[in-house]
Amino acid sequence: MLGYATLRVIWWVLLGVLLIGFAVTDGWDLGACALLPFIARTDGERRLTINAVAPTWEGNQVWFILGGGAIFAAWPFVYAVSFSGFYLAMFLVLASLILRPVGFKYRSKRPQRAWRSRWDWALFVGGFVPSLVFGVAVGNVLSGVPFHFDDDLRIFYDGSFLGLFTPFSLLCGLLSVAMLTMHGAAFVSTKVERGRVHDRASAFGRMAAVATIVLFAVGGIFIAFGHLGYAMVNLVDPAGPSNPLRATVHHAAGAWLRNYATYPWNALAPLLGLGGAMIAFLGFSRRADGLTLLGSAGSVAGIIATVGVSMFPFILPSSTDAHASLLVWNASSSRGTLFTMLIVTVIFLPIILIYTSWVYRVLFGRITQTEIAASPDFY
Asked: Contact at 8 Å (CB) between 219 and 210?
């Protein structure tokens, strides 16, 4: 039977897989919506872009729900701190995400240009705002979140909503926007017929790929020289009880880079992030749409994985009381809970993957404006 420490690492990996799954699948939906007013200028072109993502966006949201559920069940302390500290930011994300299904459903209810234009910009907000806020949240996690516990493990958040927007967190937010815009452009270029929308998506995708490379590199420099990072003073028993008060942690500039010296294979994550964006740029330039989507997906996965492997074993460090930082070893649920959840995941995650693959197989192929004009079932 799996030990407690092993189960904790497995669930740390699974949490990363779920977050990457959400960013890769729903990421192209967010990116496509953020690009909608710019790559599609006529009503027909905008309907073409919308119908590239609208049939599958609900299924892609499953990864978001699974990620939140995994945090709640496997890492209750992380869930409690993040959902209370980032409450207003999460409300902003949810309010923006609500605009997406409403925009899809209501946009074509009336033929007036002003009506449809307003919903097009609502879809833009539903794509751009979550992309930005998710990146800002990751920047705050890397910088440290202002929270502490009292002796009864009651959580106190010491920050403010505006305090979330620091120069580094905004840099991470812009990286997130660039990354998901690149990914959305890659997906649109594979789903719509060759033409003006395809060419505009490729043009914006090239710019987003360059921005992703530059911002990711600048972020790495910021982490190396910007006094970011936390380190453990005493070793925490990987199989010990979950108690955030038993770790001794201190702020250590450059600590997020130490795992690369200890585990050199971790460098594969940032290399994938940079290399995938370069491949996407090459694919956009050569109109190799399949290569473009593969490269952008690899870049998204690599950038998110870079955050995880850089911080391990930290999950949520505290900037106001470093000793309250949440680690893989002190913030998980019980061993029995982790094991039971793992059994459920082993059964149902493959079913989700198989079903998702089947859906995309059924919907495989490019959408044309002729098909949209001829069918009343399209948005």
From this structure: no
Query: Is the pLDDT score of 67 beyond 90?
Result: no
Chain mean position to CA 75: 18
CA triple 13-17-18, angle to 5 deg: 120
Q: How far apart are CA 45 and CA 40, in angstroms?
A: 5
> Does 3 fall in a domain?
no
Domain count, the chain: 1
What is the C-alpha to C-alpha distance for residues 41 and 332, in angstroms, rounded to an integer? Answer: 49
CA 164 from centroid of its chain's CA atoms: 17
Count CB-CB contacts under 10 A for residue 235.
9
Which domain, by its residues, includes 207?
23-374
Please check whether residue 1 lies inside any domain of the structure.
no
- The predicted structure's pLDDT at residue 201: 95
pLDDT score recorded for residue 252: 84
Give the tens place of pLDDT for each residue, 344-366. Answer: 999 998 998 999 899 888 888 88
In a domain? residue 266: yes
Q: Would you say residue 34 lies in a domain?
A: yes
pTM of the shown model = 0.93
Give me the numbers of helices (H) and strands (E) for the chain, helices first please. Answer: 13, 6
> What per-residue string of b and e applies to 179-202 under the rule 16 or more CB within 10 Å gives b?
bbbbbbbbbbbbbbeeeebbebbb
